[in-house]
Specification:
Strands 1, 2, 3, 4, 5, 6, 7, 8, 9, 10, 11 and 12 form a twelve-stranded mixed beta sheet that branches. It contains eight helices and twelve strands. The protein has helices at 7-16, 45-54, 65-70, 80-95, 202-212, 231-240, 251-254, 266-278, and strands spanning 34-42, 102-109, 120-132, 139-150, 156-167, 193-195, 217-222, 227-228, 283-294, 303-314, 322-332, 338-349. Residues 167-191 are annotated as: Disordered.
């Protein structure tokens, strides 16, 4: 009788059986396809607080009833970063579990109405573009428009467009015309002066921009806090959003990768950097994000810091108690290497009279 657990016997069996693969290859996507993602996820107070706590997003309106009511909420709502991460996490099994480079995300938007714990999140994605990669014939490029919806009402709670490189089943022949040509690097053209706002209210950002106007100056500053990545942020947080990408939980597979280890979910890196930034401002409401890019991997032991540049401040918002500010945020590591960048539009509280 064959002992299937005998190491030599089992090794032979592993070599002969087929692997039931997860995820989809580039050839499985076609423009216009709509994918209904099966899992779904109920947004919970525990999940919300775990995400916010681990990424240092400590806005009291998302933690305390009195602070939430002062901002017009019935109770502490779901934080937009957790909502975004959960929306993307649910899509990973169908869209990007095969791996490939996350090329960017843009047009991240939320409704003005808050989202509360207990909301059941259902997610769908539409393929908006597929393209051949001339420089990497083993990959194709796919863009999706993803919408996270309230399962009960059908209301869109979070939407965005993201682009990934996706492995092909078979590489395609290319002429290499997509390869980047070597270019001479231009000398950086930095301003002569960097201005830091005096505080975190809307008027502080407005005044700093007025001071920089007409001068060779920029409103830009770095944030003191850093967050070193550990097993919770690298493995637990993505899995709690149903993000099954092997990059975040399979050390065996990742041991031969450039990082040599599992890496942080991009939305954890992003949310951590934004948490640092928000700690130096009086955030009223998140409006949206654009032109997001992830520049290199973040692994266990890396520390995430943040840098902010203020782009504009407009005296217009959903509440008279706030104005709208647009920022550019750059997350960087302990070696001062950028790991994430994106623009963010948020309503910032006006100074109380």
């Amino acid at each position: 009788m064959t002992d299937w657990t005998d190491p030599d016997t089992f090794a032979q069996a592993l070599e002969q059986v087929e692997t039931k693969e997860k995820g989809n290859c580039f050839e499985d996507f076609a423009d216009g396809d709509v994918i209904e993602h099966d899992p779904g996820l109920t947004l919970t107070q525990f999940g919300n607080e775990q995400w916010m706590g681990q990424t240092l997003n400590h806005d009291p309106a998302y933690w305390r009833t009195d602070a939430a009511e002062a901002r017009g909420y019935d109770e502490p709502p779901i934080h937009p970063d957790y909502l975004t991460a959960a929306t993307l996490g649910i899509t990973v099994e169908d869209l990007s579990e095969k791996g490939g480079y996350f090329l960017g995300r843009t047009d991240v938007r939320f409704p003005e109405a808050p989202v509360y714990a207990g909301t059941e999140l259902h997610v769908e994605s539409e393929v908006v573009n597929t393209a051949t990669s001339s420089s990497r014939p083993e990959y194709g490029i796919v863009s999706w428009r993803t919408r996270g919806k309230d399962a009960e009402t059908g209301d869109v709670l979070c939407s965005y467009e993201r682009t990934n490189m996706i492995p092909r089943r078979e590489p395609v022949a290319t002429d290499g015309s997509g390869a980047a040509a070597a270019e001479e690097e231009d000398e950086p053209d930095l301003p002569e002066e960097f201005i830091t706002p005096d505080g975190g209210y809307f008027e502080d950002f407005q005044a700093a921009l007025a001071k920089a106007d007409g001068e060779n100056a920029a409103v830009a500053y770095r944030h003191e806090r850093g967050r070193t990545q550990d097993d919770v942020t690298v493995a637990q947080l993505p899995l709690s959003t149903l993000n099954t990408a092997k990059q975040h939980h399979n050390v065996d597979v990742m041991s031969d990768s450039p990082s040599g280890d599992i890496v942080t979910y991009g939305d954890v890196t992003r949310s951590t950097a934004l948490g640092h930034a928000r700690s130096d401002e009086q955030t009223w409401r998140e409006v949206g994000f654009d032109d997001e890019s992830f520049h290199t991997f973040v692994a266990v032991g890396d520390t995430v810091y943040a840098f902010t540049r203020v782009l504009s401040a407009e005296d217009d918002a959903s509440s008279e108690q706030a104005g709208t500010v647009t920022f550019e945020h750059i997350a960087f590591n302990q070696d001062d290497e950028p790991v994430y960048s994106g623009t963010r539009t948020a309503e910032i509280r006006k100074r109380p009279n």
